[in-house]
Write a structure and sequence with these properties.
The structure is a single chain. About 60% of the residues lie in helices and about 0% in strands. A hairpin with a 2-residue loop joins strand 1 and strand 2. The chain is mostly helical and about 450 residues long. It has one domain. The protein contains 15 helices and 2 strands. Helix 1 packs parallel to helix 6, helix 2 packs across helix 5 and helix 7 packs parallel to helix 9. It has a two-stranded antiparallel ribbon with strand order 1-2.
Length: about 450
């Protein structure tokens, strides 16, 4: 699986390449999509040639199948069915298949570290572009930097912030959590944080800031014990609330507080975001089961709305986005997926020190994705989808290395049995009662 593993690393490092459009004959695709498809093809060939059984994490199969079941309805009700099929292929189907390949090729702590470092390569490129764009704007005296944050490559500065925040969570866990990690697994995250933290802050994305606050809180709890953990659990949320209140109460005109309130430029603020939520909620109330498909929100008649939100198709909320675009089935699949991921993390809370940094990092990254999803649309983008499922692949690999079995968490309604045995393919000698390999007896003394 060497070729597949190398392509997985290369694809992880190429997350920002989803914006690099490539024309292959009559087809228009992206460099990231080409990398994902090449990985899938090479992996299929290697599996066929070697006869190795794929390690698909069965615990996530049910939620993914439920989301897949919503695709035909979403395409049928979308105003542009061809565009809807392209969005579903790039943001859902291909990242899910890449997730399966990643779970299969990562088989050791060293390979997990290489995968995380590959993700940070793409994140470092985004961070450098953000810092360079901001420095150029300051040097040239560009007006209204706070109202319209300068950005390169990405269409919105908030998109760069949403990508950097989960990567900061991974890097922070690799740096703070104790464990027998290699030196490169400590040095690379430290260098990444030096450029990623200021870059994520300079995007002026409220969703990214909220995600960063959640990451700091989660890592502080994971890295402390006893009384210190209790102090951290009270102090950090209190400081966050006081800081946000002081920021919103700042009287200076043209300050960040005013931008947060009025939503200047592409940095959507409270008022603009509320308008998006109202429009999306109205559509959901009209079509609560099927949703309105992909592209309907952007095609709505929005006279008098701010220019930065009048034609946006994402409702700046992850739950609304799934419900609006994929209907009730898609929303149920998202909730089921989150529940399964949370269940895995509970099972892995006492993981061995060699994989614990990856478990904590993946947990903090998923927390950043879902918390930032309260104020912006995460996951429904090729780069964020690959990154989110990559964090889930780290969790599944850690469970396999720990020889853990996950029991059935949720069952389908109406008394039906579960879609699949919610467990990773494990050796047959693992007892179902404990979910772990039996401990070998101590050697007999003479």
């Amino acid at each position: 699986m060497r070729a597949s593993r190398a392509l997985v690393y290369a694809t992880a490092a190429a997350l920002p390449a989803f914006l690099l459009r490539v024309h292959v004959g009559p087809l228009s695709t992206s460099a990231l999509e080409i990398a994902v498809v090449a990985t899938l093809v090479v992996y299929t060939v290697e599996v066929y040639a070697s006869g190795v059984r794929p390690r698909w994490p069965g615990a996530f199969t049910g939620p993914m199948l439920l989301v897949v079941a919503s695709f035909p309805i979403a395409v049928a009700v979308s105003p542009d069915r061809h565009a809807a099929m392209d969005e579903i292929r790039m943001s859902f189907v291909e990242p899910a298949l890449f997730f399966g390949v990643t779970c299969s090729v990562l088989s050791s702590q060293r390979e997990m570290g290489r995968f995380v470092r590959a993700l940070m390569v793409g994140g470092a490129a985004v961070a450098l572009m953000v810092l360079a764009a901001f420095a150029h704007a300051v040097a040239t005296g560009r007006p209204d930097i706070l109202g319209t944050p300068p950005i390169a490559w990405y269409p919105r500065a908030a998109q760069a912030g949403l990508l950097l925040t989960p990567l900061i969570a991974l890097a922070g866990a690799m740096l703070l959590m104790p464990g027998p990690l290699r030196r490169v697994d400590r040095v690379v995250p430290a260098l990444f944080l030096v450029i990623a933290l200021p870059a994520a802050t300079l995007t002026l994305s409220q969703a990214a800031w909220l995600g960063l606050g959640a990451v700091v809180f989660a890592l502080a709890l994971a890295a402390t014990r006893g009384r210190r953990r209790r102090v951290v659990g009270v102090a950090i949320p209190t400081l966050a609330v006081l800081g946000m209140a002081a920021l919103l109460a700042a009287p200076a005109r043209g300050s960040v507080a005013q931008d947060i309130t009025t939503g200047g430029g592409p940095s959507t603020g409270v008022d603009s975001r509320a308008q998006l939520w109202n429009d999306a909620a109205a559509m959901v109330r009209a079509h609560p089961l099927t949703g309105v498909g992909i592209g309907a929100l952007g095609a709505r008649n929005a006279p008098g709305e701010a220019a930065d939100v009048a034609h946006r198709d994402d409702p700046s909320n992850l739950v609304l986005a799934f419900w609006l675009q994929l209907g009730a089935l898609g929303l149920a699949g998202l909730a089921w997926f989150a529940a399964r991921a949370g269940r895995w993390l509970l099972v892995l809370r006492s993981a061995h020190a060699s994989v614990r940094p990856f478990v904590v990092g993946a947990a903090a990254a998923l927390l950043a994705v879902f918390v930032a999803g309260l104020l912006d649309t995460t996951v429904v983008s090729p780069d964020l989808a690959v990154l989110t499922l990559g964090a889930c692949a780290l969790i599944a690999t850690a469970a396999r290395l720990e020889r853990l079995r996950l029991r059935v968490l949720l069952r389908l309604p109406l008394g039906a049995t579960d879609i699949e045995p919610a467990e990773l393919p494990m050796p047959a000698d693992i007892p179902r009662g404990t979910g772990r390999h039996p401990v070998a007896p101590p050697p007999a003394t003479a």
